[in-house]
Design goal:
CATH class of the largest domain: Alpha Beta
Number of strands: 10
Structural class: alpha/beta
CATH topology of the largest domain: 2-enoyl-CoA Hydratase, Chain A, domain 1
Number of helices: 10
Radius of gyration: 18 Å
CATH superfamily of the largest domain: 2-enoyl-CoA Hydratase, Chain A, domain 1
Strand order of the largest sheet: 1-2-3-5-7-10
Bound molecules: coenzyme A
Helix content: 40-55%
Distance between the termini: 56 Å
Number of domains: 2
Length: 263
């Protein structure tokens, strides 16, 4: 497919230059939180990426100065029962899987908060570069929840079990420098250099043989295939959270801008 026009979307901005498609999640007033529309539009753009030869690599970033993506859209959680929550998690995992298993390299240019689903989205990309002010975390426990878009699996793969458990159980955030030390990200740079550096790295990669680059991705992914039932266990447990008073209190407290009372 030739790249004649780029789609106009309500939650994503897409631009193309020299073989690199840049996707900007564009809900800055909601910290670029991932709602249903963002997922639908990401799937539309993934179709485009997979079917367009002129797109050789992809940058994912967030609009505005503050956030890459501050997680799943918590306001959509109040209407979900356990079955719907499982569906939400499984769907999120499938979309993020399409990124991780893509034949074309994806780089997350993390310009601010990458929390919850935002950290999970960055981890689904093949590489992560962050601006100095970026912050990373899986704060779902603050809401009586667990990560549901692959975070329990990919964080453990990237930083190891002990550090992954620490981050997910404490809900603490890591600075960009700490994330680099932990092995969660590849590089840190000044905010105003982030997109240029991301383009430079992808330009180097797309100058190589694209079939070989795709095979590197597939071969590295093969290491983790055995553990894939962990993703289903995550879906089951994420769904269970939606049957607890703890999760209702956590989500309501966030939406009502107060501290949760888990007792
Ligand atoms: N889902 C829905 N809305 C979100 C959101 C999310 N994950 N993260 C932020 N927002 C919204 C806020 O509700 C607020 O909306 P409002 O202006 O209509 O009230 C707006 O984005 C700005 O966020 P605010 O909390 O006022 O900004 P801040 O600078 O004080 O704090 C964060 C920034 C990222 C630390 C804070 O927004 C936060 O903790 N977000 C939730 C992170 C999270 O738990 N993610 C995991 C979800 S499973």
């Amino acid at each position: 497919m030739e790249l004649n026009t780029l789609p106009t979307l309500s939650t994503l901005l897409v631009s193309w230059q020299d073989g690199i498609l840049t996707i900007t999640i564009n809900r800055p007033d909601k910290m670029n939180a991932l709602n249903r529309t963002v997922f639908e539009e990401l799937e539309t753009v993934l179709d485009l990426i997979e079917n367009t030869t002129q797109i050789k690599a992809v940058i994912l970033t967030g609009a505005g100065q503050k956030a890459f993506v501050a997680g799943a859209d918590i306001s959509e959680f109040t209407s979900l029962d356990q079955a719907a929550a499982k569906q939400l998690a499984r769907h999120g995992q499938l979309v993020f899987d399409r990124i991780e298993k893509n034949k074309k390299p994806f780089l997350a240019a993390v310009n601010g908060f990458a929390l919850g689903g935002g950290c999970e989205l960055a981890m689904a990309c093949h590489m992560r570069m962050a601006a100095e002010q970026a912050k990373f975390g899986q704060p779902e426990v603050n809401l009586g929840l667990i990560p549901g878009y692959g975070g329990t699996q990919r964080l453990t793969q990237l930083v190891g079990k002990g550090k992954a458990l620490e981050l997910m159980m404490s809900g603490n955030m890591l600075s960009a420098t700490e994330a680099l030390q932990w092995g969660l990200i590849n590089q840190v740079c000044a905010s105003d250099e982030l997109l240029d550096k991301a383009r430079q790295l992808l330009a180097t990669i797309i100058a190589k043989g694209p079939a070989a680059v795709s095979r590197v991705i597939a071969a590295v992914n093969a290491l983790y295939e055995k553990g894939s039932e962990g993703y289903l266990e995550e879906v089951r447990l994420f769904g269970e959270c939606f049957g607890t008073d703890e999760m209702k209190e956590g989500v309501n407290a966030f939406l009502e801008k107060r501290k949760p009372n888990f007792n």
